[in-house]
Structure formats: C-alpha cells, structure tokens
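User: structure tokens for this one?
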Amino acid sequence: MTPHLLVTRQTKSPRDNAYHRKSVAASLVQCVYVLEKDRQEQREGSDALALPWWAFFHIQLLRTLVVDVDASIFAAIHEFKPPSSMCNDTLRRGPRYVIAFRGTITKAAGHSLGSAMAMLTRKTMAKTGIFMESFLFNPPYVSAPIEGIKDKKLKHGLRFAGSVVTAGLTIAMKAKRRILSFDPFAALSAWVPCLFVNPSDNICSGYVGYFEHRRKMEEIGAGNIEKLATQTSLGCLLMGASGKESDEPLHLIPSASVTVNYTPARDFKEAHGIPQWWKPDLRLESKLYQY
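Assistant:
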C-alpha cells in the first residue's frame, strides 16, 4: 500500500515541525485505508474504527471519494476545524482542506493506484502554475532496480552511461521535432513535493538514486547532461524514435524535498507500509533538490 496526502496550499506553518507534519499526513492517509476496511466489513457507528485517525487532530471528514464500479473508498476530503481556544494567526495561515489518497489494498503490499493519481493530478496542476503542497509516501519509481547494486562505483557508472545515452537521444529527438522554445519539465521546477521513501522498499527507492545522481553529475561538471537525461526515460525515447506515441514518464519530477528513512526494516511490508511514517525516533535524512 502506497499512500499520499495532498494539502491545498503550499504554506509552511511555523506551528508544525517536520515530525508533526509528517505524522498528521500519514495518519490522514491511514484513515482512508480504515474507512475502506470499515465499509468492507460493514462496521458502522460505534463499531467503526476510522474516526480517531482524523478527530485527534481537530479535523473533520467532509466527504469520501468512491469508485463507481464497486463503491470502494479511495480518497477522503478533510477540513481543519480547531476549537476557538486554539485559533490564532498562525493557525489561520495554515492549510484548511486536505485530500488524502490511499493505495491499493491487497494481502501483500503492491503498486499503488493512489500514488499514480496523486502524482498525475499535482503535475497537471503545476503545469498551469498552481503549486499545491504534496506529501507522497513510498511513491513508485519505475526503472531498473539499480539501487539494489551494492558496488557504488558500478552503480554510478551505470547511471552515468544511462544519462549520456538518454541525453543524446533527447537532443536528437528535440532537433527532429524542433521543440526548443518551451521546456515542460522545467515548468514544473517550482513545484516541490515532499517525498518520503525507504531504501529497503524497491518500489520507491529509485528516487534516492535519481536525485543523488543528478547532484553527483553537477559536482563533476556534467550537470547539463543530467538536466536533459533527468527529463525522460530511455524507454520513452526509444518508443518516440520508432514513431510510437509515448506518454510523459509519470514518476520523473524536477524538484523535491526527499526524506529517506534509514531505520532498518524487518521485511518489505514494513519498508513499504504507511505505519513507519508516524513512528518516533526514526533515522531520517532530508534533502532539498531544486532543478
């Protein structure tokens, strides 16, 4: 299960430290999972288990979003309504509405539908100049599992070779199509989503190498090559070169605040699960990557 949370304004409220913001985001995502479980198991009234996941934070559930085919709940819209005793200028500047998306519910953790919806929605809005604060937990990164390679020199060499080939094909395709005036990837650079990833989760760990490789390429003076390579995937370029239509890679983004959880995980399920993100005393490392 790969969850997300989207906040309606990119406002950094001083009242919230990083741990609090992350914990609230993860809890509101968890509430969507529990809402769907309540529906499946027909738990209503006092038997329902979802309420504490939002009520604890003085948040109200406005409505749920459901799939037409089977009425399953895939998202929830919340409103922050603190008591009058808590109201002050700081709270009023903070986000008021929150939309939380869950991932797929399966017996084993799997690829998240919620991740795709959240990323696609935010990228589309960012292209129109609307930048909304986004919390993306364990978002899928679709590529060869290079992060699993232990040899750092080999891993960097593979990434470097891939960047050179991808950049070369990108230049060739742009020259062929003469699309030089507008860079849609650069247009997204002002949108800085918050990504929360675990290196032991093969579904999302690619983001660690994706952004770190860009930084290393800049350090060795190859930043311009990586700026081209980071915009698309080799597969998409090869499809375009063969005359086939290829969609923009959903998982590739120019900028992000990336938080990596280096706390050892017992298994893949724990590394990919949402509960890790509200636990205290995690070994976290956060970095800002700006395109």
